[in-house]
Amino acid sequence: MAEQPFPEMALLAQVLAADNTEAPSLRSTRRGSQPPARGTEEGKAPPLLSRRNSILSRRSSFGMVPGSRRPSIGPWMFHRRVSFSGLPIFQPILKTRLQNTYRMGPDKGCKFNVEQVQQVLEGTLASALGTTEYSPQGSATLAQSLTELVQSRAKEVVPPRYKLVCHVVLGQQGQQSLLVASQGLWDPETDNFASATFSNASLFAVATVHGVYFE
C-alpha cells in the first residue's frame, strides 16, 4: 500500500513552486519600470550630488538677482562719507586747545636749581660708568645712552615748565687737556645750566644740562 502525503505538505510544496516561478518576472518588471539614469551603467544607482556643492551654490546665489553683478566691498563700509571717486573722506583730527595761563615766569621757589642738578649728574655718571673701559666702536652708543639717562634723572628734580637740553662728551683718557664750552640765548633770570665730569683710568665724560623756562 503506497503512502499518501499529508495535505499540508502538498500545499506547502505548491506555494514554494509558485514563488520560484514568479520571482524572475517580478524582478524584470521592476527593472523595466524605472529607466536607467543617463550616463550610468544599467543596474547602478546614479551618483548623489555633493552637499558641499549645493551649499556653495546657495551661498553664491543668496541675495542676488539673476544677471546682476556681485556687490563689491569698498571703503563705504568703513567710512560715512565717500567722494565721487570712491575714496573715503577722512575727518580732520582736531587739536586740543589749551587756555592761556598768562604766566611769564616761574613761580617763587620753582627755578632751575644748579646745585641739585649737578649732584644728580655726578651720581648718574659715577653709577653708569664706574670701571667702564673706553671702546672706539661702542663710544657713540654709550654717549647716547648716557644722554638719555641724564635727561630722565634731571627731570625728576627740575621744576615743571622747563625744557631740558642735555649734552654728553665721552672720550679716551690719555692725560690730554680738554675744554668743553657752550653758548646760548636765554633769560638769565629764569634759565641756567649745570655740568659734571667723571673720569677713570680708561675714559672721561662731561655732562651738561641746560634748563630753559617755557612760557
UniProtKB/TrEMBL annotation:
Domain of life of the native organism: Eukaryota
GO biological process, one term: microtubule-based movement
Location of region: Disordered: 20-50
InterPro entries the UniProt entry points to: Tctex-1-like, Tctex-1-like_sf
GO molecular function terms noted in the UniProt entry: dynein intermediate chain binding
Pfam families: Tctex-1
A GO cellular component entry from the record: cytoplasm
Similarity section: Belongs to the dynein light chain Tctex-type family.
Protein name as annotated: TC1D4 protein
Gene: Tctex1d4
